[in-house]
Amino acid sequence: MQIKVFPFNAFSENTYILYDDTKEAVIIDPGCYTEEEQETLQDFIEAEGLKVVALLNTHAHVDHVLGNAFVKRTYGVKLHLHADDYPTLASVDEYAGMWGFENYEPATADETLTDGQEFTFGETTLKVLFVPGHCPGHVAFYHDDSQQVIGGDCLFHRGIGRTDLPGGNIMKLGKSLREKLYMLPDETIVYPGHGLTTTIGEEKAHNPFIRK
Asked: Which cofactor is recorded for it (predicted)?
């Protein structure tokens, strides 16, 4: 499995494309808002000859879903999201303009992700990990073969996701990190929703917010 990251929009949100030798691909958390950002995403997909087969959201805060409608329309794929974050997604249209995204285009979820679910594309299988706390329906996507996890806004290098937004809960986030992410092998590479990659072992040992 290969991973390509694009930092998009004013929040420098990490948009991910995952693909393998079959050329099938999934897009996770498309934050592409401007036409230029959308073209950047599209150009890479075309250059690599990829076939986008699904759209996945770790969670539904505005910076992670700005490109949902564009991706669904352009590639004719379904949006997969945990049911507990359906209300989070629905609320984006109400506040997007206040964050400067006046031209936000809403999109609805088509398929529901569940804890422990195996999501397969091409020759790649991702395990869905339910990790609420930053959002009620936050999930992460773990690839066991390569020990890599797309973690969204749960865990950052020396940081954790904020819990002061609607639906946030610091106790639930701590439980999610200790019982789900920190149970992964220490060598697991964490691809966060913002910023640089880290590893599970690094954060277990040194994260000032939650250590194992």
From this structure: Zn(2+)
* Axis crossing angle, helix 68-75 with helix 35-48, rounded to the nearest 10: 40
- Alpha-helical segments (H) within the chain: 35-48, 62-65, 68-75, 86-95, 170-179, 200-206
Residue 124 and residue 18 in contact, taking contact as beta carbons nearer than 8 Å: yes
Please write the tens of the pLDDT for every residue from 158-186.
999 999 989 999 999 999 999 999 999 99
For residues 54 and 83, what is the distance between their CA atoms, to the nearest angstrom? 17
What is the 3-class SS of 69-108, one letter each residue? HHHHHHHCCCEEEEHHHHHHHHHHHHHHHHHCCCCCCCCC
Domain residue ranges in the chain: 2-206
Across the range 81-93, mean pLDDT stands at 98
Pick from 120, 143, 122, 126: nearest CA to 50: 122
The 3-state DSSP class for residue 137 equals: coil
Q: Which superfamily is assigned to 2-206 in CATH?
A: Ribonuclease Z/Hydroxyacylglutathione hydrolase-like (3.60.15.10)
The answer to whether residue 212 scores a pLDDT higher than 70 is no
* CA distances for 50 relative to 44, 83, 135, 153, 208, angstroms: 9, 28, 31, 26, 40
pLDDT of residue 163: 95
